[in-house]
């Protein structure tokens, strides 16, 4: 089996993408119904209940889309030799890596940016990634409120589609100097160390967006150039990062730890801790260099 595969040899990529399109736009219908207080399709309950979990709020919308995606992947695809890791179902099983024995694994986040969703923001997304031997090969980010369905396939490219099927190319900005770069950052996660790091880097501007997928999409549209994730009391998980990772890498951008090492997936606890940097790639090395200088001088105990 070739290491360059993006789908199993038994699977037709075009057929798979068609099925994923159907699942994604169905997910958009569910999420937007909940967001507007309307009756959701496919028999899901109208009441938008919210529970607080260890990683934040979990809503009825999360669970509905989780059920829709998993049942769709299991029922509509003939290939069965892949695992499924979802944010919601991961809480119900032992997080030991033995549970994920197959080379192929779906990594799902049915609602990335739950706080934004509950706050009435448009910056929420659905993440779907297909990993081969623990490396994301296909990444899909659905942004319902923008009518955007992003696809990133390693070795093939990145694009987004509207519901009518029209395809659109990504467009990185031409900004190169750090002093001219635009950072996209979380609005619900504020940290003193991150604030100090950003003061040192002195980007031209910071824009606040919730979902990681929405952040990466903003870089792909050329609206921003850099995203930095800094673990504090909590860390991003595989389902937060895998789909956006494939998106930006397939476009020719870069995502890495601040020391330049790769992100590793499907480890015990599925945590993506440390300092993660995603960018259009044109200034990635110097951003990482200056970030490491900051940690060496100002926060030597921080594990990047």
The top level CATH class name of the largest domain: Alpha Beta
Q: Total strand count, please?
A: 14
Residue-averaged pLDDT: 90
**What is the H/E order?**
HEEHEHEHEEEEEEHEHEHEEH
Strand residue content: 15-25%
Q: Summarize the main sheet.
A: 7 strands, mixed
Q: What's the gyration radius in Å? A: 19 Å
Low-confidence spans: pLDDT under 50, at least 5 residues?
Answer: none
The general outline is: globular
The CATH superfamily of the largest domain is identified as Fructose-1,6-Bisphosphatase, subunit A, domain 1
Structural class: alpha+beta
User: What is the level-2 CATH architecture name of the largest domain?
Assistant: 2-Layer Sandwich
**Intertermini distance:** 34 Å
Q: Could you characterize what this model shows?
A:
- By secondary structure, this protein is of the alpha+beta class.
- The chain folds into two domains: 13-169, Fructose-1,6-Bisphosphatase, subunit A, domain 1 (Fructose-1,6-Bisphosphatase, Chain A, domain 1, 2-Layer Sandwich), CATH 3.30.540; 178-298, D-Maltodextrin-Binding Protein, domain 2 (3-Layer(aba) Sandwich).
- The chain has eight helices and 14 strands.
- A hairpin with a 3-residue loop joins strand 7 (148-153) and strand 8.
- Helix 1 packs antiparallel against helix 2 and helix 6 (212-220) runs parallel beside helix 7.
């Amino acid at each position: 089996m070739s290491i360059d595969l993006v789908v199993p040899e038994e699977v037709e990529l075009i057929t798979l993408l068609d099925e994923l399109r159907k699942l994604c736009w169905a997910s958009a219908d569910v999420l937007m119904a909940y967001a507007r207080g309307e009756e959701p399709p496919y028999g899901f309950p109208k009441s938008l209940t919210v529970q607080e979990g260890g990683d934040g709020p979990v809503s009825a919308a999360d669970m509905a889309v989780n059920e829709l995606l998993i049942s769709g992947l299991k029922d509509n695809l003939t290939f069965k030799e892949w695992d499924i890791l979802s944010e919601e179902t991961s809480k119900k099983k032992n997080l030991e890596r033995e549970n994920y024995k197959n080379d192929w694994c779906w990594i799902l986040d049915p609602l990335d940016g739950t706080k934004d969703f509950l706050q009435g923001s448009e910056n929420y997304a659905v993440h779907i990634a297909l990993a081969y031997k623990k490396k994301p090969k296909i990444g899909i980010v659905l942004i319902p409120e923008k009518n955007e369905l992003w696809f990133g396939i390693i070795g093939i490219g990145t694009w987004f589609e509207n519901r009518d099927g029209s395809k659109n190319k990504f467009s990185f900005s031409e900004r190169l100097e750090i002093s001219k770069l635009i950072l996209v950052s979380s609005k619900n996660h504020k940290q003193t160390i991150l604030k100090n790091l950003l003061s040192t880097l002195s980007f031209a501007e910071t824009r606040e967006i919730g979902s990681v997928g929405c952040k990466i999409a903003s870089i792909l549209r050329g609206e921003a150039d850099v995203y930095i994730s800094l673990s504090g009391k909590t860390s991003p998980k595989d389902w937060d990062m895998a789909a956006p990772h494939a998106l930006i890498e397939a476009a020719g951008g870069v995502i890495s730890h601040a020391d330049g090492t790769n992100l590793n997936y499907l480890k015990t606890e599925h945590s993506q801790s440390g300092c993660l940097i995603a960018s259009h790639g044109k200034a990635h090395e110097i951003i990482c260099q200056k970030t490491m200088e900051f940690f060496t001088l100002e926060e030597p105990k921080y594990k990047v």
